[in-house]
What does this fold into?
Amino acid sequence: MEYKILYRIEHPENFGGAWYNEDGSDNRIVDELTNSTLSELPMGRDERYHADGKKWQCAAWSVDHLKYWFTEDDAQELILKGFKLCKFISTQFIFEEQQVLFTKLGVISLEYFDSYEALLESEVNETVG
It folds into this structure.
C-alpha cells in the first residue's frame, strides 16, 4: 500500500480548514487574518472535492509547501483561533499542481503541533532517530 506524509492546518475538533469545514460548509477563517492574502485566493467549490463519492480535503506535500500557503504569522493567528498544524500519513491522496487532495478515511496516523518550530523539530527527530 502506498502512503504519503502530508501537512495541513486544521481545527482538531471539527477537522475544518481555513476556508471550509470538513462537511464542506463555509468558515472563511482566512478572512479574519491580519496580514494574509489568503482570502484573495479563488477557493470556490469544485466537484473534484467529491470525486468517487468521497470527501477530499486539501493538504501540502512538505513543511515548506505549507509555509508557502500559510506564513508563520498566519499559522500563529490560526493557532490562537484553535487550529493546529498537523502532519499525517495518508493512503488516499491525489497530487495536484498546487496542493494534495486526501480523504480522512485514508489517514492512518495524525500528529498535531502548536508551531512551525515544533513541526520542524518532529521532522529532525524522524531523520535522526
